[in-house]
Amino acid sequence: MTANSIKSSKAFSVFKDSAICIVVLTAATLAGYAFKAFQLADADIIMLYIIAVLVISIFTSKMYFCLISSLVGVMLFNCFFTYPEFSLSVHDAGYLVTFVTMFITAFIAGTLANKLKRNILIAEQNAREKEEAALLAQNEQLRADMLRSISHDLRTPLTSISGNASTLISGGDTLDESARQQIYTDIYSESMWLIEMVENLLYATRIEDGRMQLNISVEILDDIVQEAVKHTKRTHPKRNIIVDMYDEIIPVMADANLIVQVIVNLMDNAVKYSDEDSDVTVSVRRENAHTVVISVSDHGSGISDEEKEKVFDMFYTGGSRSSDSRRSLGLGLALCRSIITSHGGTISVSDNIPNGTVVSFTLPIGEVDLNE
Question: What's CA 250's distance to the chain center, in Å?
């Protein structure tokens, strides 16, 4: 903020507080005339000016406005409500004591009101600082959990990759073809898992920093689903993936790349947490004229009701392990929820009867311009 803008801000604050004083004291004087018309006592009119000073103390920013308004209130009472009217002269010496008492009372009341206002502001500031400190501590704990999860989950695949590579380097010629192929497959599998984890971490960083850019347009849902299924079949060629959707073109408002990532994450979870000989199903249905529901279901061990409330939290794993004994980093479902929420949709998890899990999310249906 420049020096000129600071001066302008201070000048505006003084102007605003001065206007408040003028308006409140004028209102008190007009109310005093109404009191006088009903032949109320001078003490009642004095009380009006004390209340006016209280109001001014609450709504102005500086203490000296309380002092000035107390003095001006005494002068207004003397000018308009004591004999001789419209003059600052004092006909009755007893009014001098009244003026001094009125000034002291108004000033003390205004001071107390000002202190009360300051205490309230300080309490609100302390509450905000505590809230910010708690949020900072939560973020630090989240980062610490992330580092622990990353260090733990990187160690296993990296150890496997380095161990297999060492085996190939030191004795690759002595291994038969099937053994070498198995080592190549293990290295490829561990590498793909690391790539997936890094991609999810990048998405998590973009979401946390607010840098996720959405390129939402009208997309054909069938193309998005087929692209996600194709990607999953490349990484899990032995798994049977069933696509259950109507033979109709359903346009949706979506960022195609991000929704593909969501479906891939959900199918990866379904594959990891179910038996190798079980099916994974991707189904699509219209919920109403404006919304479509996409579901990914498996026949694994399922998720308990207690964990259903937590599975979308960042870095929550519940201690679960996949069918290949790897521990999840706990990013996939949290990222899915962030992406779907940014599309104006919802995501939920439910039981797949008789066993397994169904994760469903919604997307808004778009309109296709046939003239394009």
Answer: 31
- Separation of alpha carbons 138 and 168, rounded Å: 45
Query: Could you give the CA distance from residue 143 to residue 211 in angstroms, rounded to a whole number?
Result: 18
Three-class DSSP category at 94:
helix
**What angle (nearest 5°) sits at the alpha carbon of residue 313, between those of residues 274 and 242?**
30
- Residue 244's region, left for phi above 0, alpha for psi from -120 to 50, else beta, is beta
pLDDT digit string (tens) for 321-356?
Answer: 454 444 455 567 887 888 898 899 999 999 998 889
Residues 6+ apart with CB under 8 A from 341: 347
Contact (Cβ atoms closer than 8 angstroms) between residue 356 and residue 302: yes
What value, to the nearest 5°, has the Cα angle with vertex 115 and ends 114 and 119?
Answer: 120
Among residues 115, 132, 149, which one ends one of the domains?
132
Are 257 and 298 in contact by the 8 Å Cβ rule? The answer is no
Query: Hey, what amino acid is at 362?
Result: T
In the numeric block, which tokens belong to residue 154? 């990187």
Angle between helix axes 3-37 and 64-81 (nearest 10 degrees) is: 30
> Per the domain annotation, does 139 fall within a domain?
no
Query: Which residues make beta-bridge pairs with 360?
Result: 295, 348
Q: Number of folded domains in the chain?
A: 2
Report pLDDT digits (tens) over 41-90.
888 888 888 888 888 888 887 778 888 888 888 888 888 888 888 787 76
Sign of CA pseudo-dihedral 182, 184, 186, 189: negative
CA distance 111 to 117: 10
**In a 3-state reduction of DSSP, which class is residue 284?**
strand
CATH number at residue 302: 3.30.565.10
User: Which of 100, 116, 132 is the endpoint of a domain?
Assistant: 132
Q: Does pTM top 0.85 for this prediction?
A: no
